[in-house]
Specification:
10-stranded antiparallel sheet, globular, about 30% helix, 9 helices, about 325 residues
Length: about 325
């Protein structure tokens, strides 16, 4: 069903912009365009239904799952509850077809490796009940997160990854199509909206014990040695020790298998994206996007406890 929809959607978008004769563009879309499941805000949530998909507010949790708290003892902010059985079809064959995904947010700074939790529940939905914040526990940044809970509905949408020069040509020659298939947020799956950096590599490094290499993989070991020596001369002893004892050994190991690491990083894909939604009173920095990533191998096995969260902002 997913593939039938995808092919028809490509035909429809070409017809929509009256370029059905452009066989080169059609071939590009057929090869690279994927399917995302995009949500739309429906009415404000009244909590009359249990277990339905919603944004913000309060989740419906089973007794076996407590509202998660951060290491500092504050309650994570509830962002979304997604009932996978409500989807018209799955974004790919790797996704579970049933159950509920819960997304919780901690402090959203810095904009990388953000504290969060994703919880997957695939038990008896009749055991769900509307949860409350733990008694006596404050929510992270509660004063800045007075979100308005909404029910949501799901619709399939084409999503095209960054194809380098091909994307540049698409933007130049067919801006309307580019906007329609490349700027896809508020969705399950889809492509990154990140405008800078290497988010997939960042996710891979942070979840494989190499977080100290963030923003350092482009450097050579010799450069890091030089930076450590300069820091020591400047009296920044702690930073010099950090470079010499933590960054440098990891960087040497990384460089020995750099190609394999780069390839493994490509396994990280968007799980869920959430933009700044005015109706929800939700704004991430300067109208940015939250992007939850997951290793496709974890997705296949239904493991959602090793995800990564990035904030894409201008």
């Amino acid at each position: 069903m997913r593939e039938v929809w995808r092919k028809q959607a490509i035909t429809d978008v070409l017809n929509k912009y009256d370029i059905v004769e452009d066989k080169e563009l059609e071939a590009l879309l057929m090869e690279y365009a994927k399917v995302a499941l995009r949500f739309e805000l429906a009415s404000e949530e009244n909590y009359e239904q249990v277990g339905n998909s919603r944004i913000a507010g309060r989740p419906d949790l089973p007794s076996s799952i407590k509202w998660p708290c951060t290491a500092d003892g504050e309650a994570y902010t509830f962002l979304a509850q997604i009932n996978l059985s409500e989807l018209p079809f799955l974004p790919s064959k790797h996704w579970p077809a049933t159950g509920i995904l819960y997304f919780f947010l901690g402090l959203d700074e810095p904009a990388y490796n953000i504290d969060h939790q994703v919880i997957y529940y695939n038990g008896d939905l009749t055991s769900l009940a509307l949860a409350k914040l733990p008694e006596g526990i404050e929510e992270v940044n509660a004063d800045e997160r007075e979100f308005v809970c909404h029910k949501i509905t799901w619709h399939p949408h084409l999503s095209l990854p960054d194809l380098g020069e091909d994307s540049d040509v698409l933007l130049e020659e067919h801006e309307d199509i580019y906007t329609e298939v490349c700027d896809v947020s508020d969705a399950l799956a889809g492509e990154l909206q990140t405008w800078a950096g290497e988010t997939q590599l960042d996710a891979y490094l942070c979840r494989n014990g190499m977080g100290e290499l963030l923003f350092n993989t482009y450097k050579t070991p010799e450069r890091v040695e030089q930076e450590a020596a300069e820091s020591l001369r400047d009296g920044r002893n702690q930073y010099a020790e950090h470079l010499a004892k933590e960054v440098l050994p990891l960087l040497r190991q990384y460089k020995e298998r750099e190609e394999q690491h780069q390839q493994a990083a490509k396994n990280w894909q968007v799980l869920f994206s959430l933009s700044s939604l005015n109706e929800v009173n939700m704004c991430w920095w300067d109208a940015g996007y939250l992007e939850f990533l997951i290793d496709v191998e974890d997705l296949k096995e239904g493991r959602f406890n090793n995800t990564y969260l990035n904030l894409a902002t201008s």
